[in-house]
Design goal:
Radius of gyration: 17 Å
Number of helices: 8
Number of strands: 6
Mean pLDDT: 88
CATH topology: Rossmann fold
Shape: globular
Largest sheet: 6 strands, parallel
Low-confidence stretches: none
Order of helices and strands: EHEHHEHHEHHEHE
CATH superfamily: P-loop containing nucleotide triphosphate hydrolases
CATH class: Alpha Beta
Structural class: alpha/beta
Strand order of the largest sheet: 2-3-1-4-5-6
Number of domains: 1
Strand content: 5-15%
Distance between the termini: 41 Å
Helix content: 40-55%
Length: 219
């Protein structure tokens, strides 16, 4: 679906922790003049415990995120039909991706039962933007934003997450997909990088696309 200007009306930004999903989502929302739908990790009371002791806190952490995201998707379905564009920093399917990575067999069985009963008729995006960066870049960005609950994230967990995303999007066909190399370019402070991405976002209607320009020399 597109708006009167031909822009996609529901854009989702995805990628591993620290890759810049929320920052880009905010900038795109500003460009399109619309409100954001953010996943609200800070609201999850189990998240800090999960990063300290994943085995003990994985299931409540994931169930909280599942119910939170389902509620947000319901609000989207019931929202303002005349708003031209919606921008979100999460894809509903990411919840199952994380669950399959962090839950043990019995927990995953319970989670899947809950998932099947709660995730129904979820609207698919008109465009998914998948941001990619290597572990070293993610660790640097996580360190810079200095969130207390993220201080226990290690490189092994991030690599597992990158691998899970890579496998997921290799098979993803539910919506048009734009894969972005976010490690070298600056989509926040470099206007040329961002403007090129924005133009591509406005033109994609189907298929799989790649955004991997050389970084601009600002000297």
């Amino acid at each position: 679906m597109t708006d009167v200007a031909g822009n996609p009306t529901y854009i989702v930004i995805e990628g591993p922790i620290g890759v810049g999903k929320t920052t880009l989502a905010k900038r795109l929302a500003s460009s399109f003049g619309t409100q954001l739908m953010l996943e609200g990790a800070d609201e999850n009371p189990f998240l800090a415990r999960f990063y300290k002791d994943p085995a003990q806190a994985a299931l409540p952490t994931q169930l909280f995120f599942l119910f939170q995201r389902v509620k947000q998707m319901q609000a989207l379905a019931q929202g303002d039909l005349f708003r031209s564009v919606h921008v979100a920093d999460f894809l509903m399917e990411k919840d199952r991706l994380f669950a399959r990575m962090i839950l043990d067999e019995d927990e995953l069985t319970l989670y899947e039962q809950v998932y099947e009963h709660t995730v129904k008729n979820v609207r698919q995006p008109d465009l998914v933007i998948y941001l990619q960066s290597p572990v070293a870049v993610l660790l640097e960005r996580i360190s810079k934003r200095n969130r207390a609950y993220e201080r226990h994230i290690d490189s092994c967990y991030l690599q597992q997450l990158i691998d899970a995303y890579t496998k997921f999007f290799y098979q993803y066909e539910a919506a048009p997909l734009l894969m972005v190399n976010a490690s070298e370019i600056d989509l926040v402070n470099n206007e040329k990088d961002y403007d090129m991405l924005l133009e591509q976002v406005k033109t994609i209607r189907s298929g799989r696309h790649f955004f991997n320009p050389l970084p601009f020399d600002l000297t």
